[in-house]
Recover the amino acids of this structure.
DNA sequence: ACCTGAACACCGTTCAAGT
DNA sequence: ACCTGAACACCGTTCAAGT
């Protein structure tokens, strides 16, 4: 178990030049393959695209999650940065909503990614995806705290359920090829958390049933 | 394209005795395999369990969905029956909630079933799963109409989004091995649809932020 | 009419052999 | 130190040959 840190983030022991090159080729090939065929893209195909043997892929990335995590961590960092930006520019609950929408867009980058991320949400360390997932969740916690302290959202909401719900909404949009479904489902979830009454104006007036018969 | 109706539901032309027997063996084996290994269980394994050749499985069930639909349709009928029962025994919006919970339990029968059902929700006829899915959605529509006419739920909710949300919640519970997550996420969704204010009592009092500092 | 299983084209993963 | 690719154990799906 040597503490082999990722080569792109200041490696402890630098890779041999050819190894370094293969590593980068693999990451680029994986990004392309995941984009085209989703997070379950064939690892053999990725190795083929990178022009390396399948054994080389396994040497650098012992699991699919390790490869996925490497390809995704730049995006995850951007989502965290977006949270900090929204905190200073946007009112509490709409900052949270905008951030969740950004996260859902990120999750929809690759087909099947919502599944991997939802799993990593609970595995807590078992997968390399847990690190980016944890960072994002912490960023979300900060925005949720702010929205709850402002009184706009209920105190009993947990960031875990909200993030899980956002992943589920992204997954649903993926399954139904209906990109807007993610936003609609997120709206349902957030509306359930507001402390004020039902936000969309429509319903208030119809307290005692519409005229059409049962 | 002969209109080959399912053997168990009054067949047009009855199957030969051995074929009939194999058909039933396959359905039983599939049920066991789906329960054990999820909706993606190996078809070869199912044929093996049934003691028939893989070709026989494909003859009776040209696609995985056809087999899945056959194994599931009794349960789907039960969910529809449950809707009719709840309509006559339970107040509008809690009838809908109880019914959605029953449907989520059904969807969680097999791992990976939520995915198949969510896809069938939009394919509209392409998969054999669409028939049971459509029946369930219609039953849900009836309960939703009732809840909206009573004024308890907003008028702008669609049964499509609610059922999709329930599937997504079931999926989330599956991914996180947290059976209760489905119920919690469903609660978020339904709370978002109520016409009265936030239902859980907690938050009302904290309109202007809790004392702990940002 | 129905059944069988070999055949084909794919996977993921490991590991002995190379440089 | 690193790379390669054959080998193994699986899949899903089709189809010629059987009864």
């Amino acid at each position: 178990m040597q503490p082999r840190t990722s080569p792109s983030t200041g490696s402890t022991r630098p890779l041999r030049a050819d190894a370094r090159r293969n590593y980068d080729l693999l990451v680029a090939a994986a990004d392309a393959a995941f984009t085209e065929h989703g997070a379950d893209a064939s690892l053999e195909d990725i190795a083929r695209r990178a022009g390396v043997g399948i054994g080389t892929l396994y040497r650098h990335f012992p699991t699919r999650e390790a490869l996925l995590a490497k390809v995704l961590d730049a995006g995850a960092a951007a989502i965290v940065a977006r949270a900090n930006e929204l905190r200073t520019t946007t009112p509490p609950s709409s900052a949270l909503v905008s951030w969740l929408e950004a996260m859902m867009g990120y999750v929809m980058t690759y087909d099947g990614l919502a599944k991997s991320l939802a799993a990593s949400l609970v595995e807590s360390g078992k997968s390399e995806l847990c690190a980016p997932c944890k960072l994002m969740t912490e960023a979300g916690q900060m925005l949720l705290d702010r929205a709850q302290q402002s009184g706009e959202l209920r105190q009993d909401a947990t960031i875990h359920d909200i993030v899980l719900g956002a992943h589920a909404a992204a997954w649903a949009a993926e399954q139904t090829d209906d990109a807007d479904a993610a936003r609609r489902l997120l709206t349902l979830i957030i509306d359930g958390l507001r402390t004020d009454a039902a936000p969309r104006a429509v319903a208030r007036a119809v307290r005692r049933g519409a005229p059409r018969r049962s």
In short: Residues 17-63 of chain B form a domain with the Arc Repressor Mutant, subunit A fold (CATH 1.10.10.60). The radius of gyration of chain B is 21 Å. Residues 15-16, 18-19, 22, 52-56, 59 of chain B lie near DNA strand C (CB under 10 Å from a C1'). Chain B is about 65% helix and 0% strand.
